[in-house]
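Could someone model pyridoxal-5'-phosphate with this protein?
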Amino acid sequence: MSTTLKDLRPTPKTGLLDIAAYVPGKEHAHGVAKVYKLSSNESPLGASTLAADAFATAAKNLEIYPDGQATALKQAIAEVHGLNTGNILCGNGSDELLGLLCQTYLSPGDEAVYTEHGFMVYKIYIMATGGTPVVAREKNEQAEVDAILSVVTPRTKIVFLANPNNPTGTYLPFEEVRRLHAGLPKNVLLVLDAAYAEYVRRNDYESGMELVSSSENVVMTRTFSKIYGLAALRIGWMFAPAHVIDAVNRIRGPFNLNSAAILAGAAAIRDRAHIDRAVAFNDEWLAYMVEQLTTLGLRVTPSVGNFLLVHFPDDAAKSAEAADAYLTSKGYILRRVTGYGFPNALRLTIGSEEANRGVVAALSEFLK
Ligand SMILES: *Cc1c(COP(=O)(O)O)cnc(C)c1O
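Reply:
Sure, complex below.
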């Protein structure tokens, strides 16, 4: 068969079709009165009412381009966290920033490291640049500094660490993060993805701001999608050395945040009472869920986030797949995590009181 010019069609660049598209948490369950979506680590408390008011205000000026510098949002973030606005860059979700960092620092053939059960988005963005994803093994569902350092080569350009990690909920104490940083060559960018930082109640945890301030090769990313309850608006930010901000700024979309996101984000981060409520709620219900699930005989990975990795028995009738089908039939949507190396576990977001009690009752029924 000869291919004529007429038959040709555009071909994605080398390696692109090897990328498996990200699969978001399911949203739907059919034939049930009420659906409890516990598959995407969204906040059961929703957004601050101040953020919702700001969003409504944005509707009055839809013909105007957004502020390409997201000034109001950067100022609010800087004020709340005591940072310099010159070291902050906002993104259309922190996912966008993770992608921009890959585009900025990876050429084809360069390597970027993440951990065995680390967040899947890293792999997608690494591969999209033609870079090579390198996986460091974990121990007890936890990132391990020595394992990460052992896979660093002269080709390594980025190390991604989700701290705490999704979907495990485990974290590295900050002394360990410092040890990781100390062991990395100075030309390797360490990206600390602190999407769940606000939830963590541990004295030995830090999100990484100090390390960013005192080095030239560390970036911390944060999101408004989790504790701020603004996932729909796509708002993330990073705190980084000025030279990193300068480089990434050159390739980002000029208006990457929309006006509603800028206004609502700025209002949300200033509403500290709402965040305090969300933290207190999570503390209470995370502990409740661990206790209840453990009592049911299920192993849960110790989590400092707003979700739990729940492991199911080897028995096929009681497997994660069977549990997922059963729970979905009752309206409880959890997240399958086979792609993260956990074929027999489900990730459960801490939901409303009703959702939490309901899912425990349903699991109890399922395990009978
Ligand atoms: C949810 C999540 C993010 C945030 O993504 P957004 O694009 O800001 O919504 C980043 N990293 C991890 C590990 C997450 O779980």
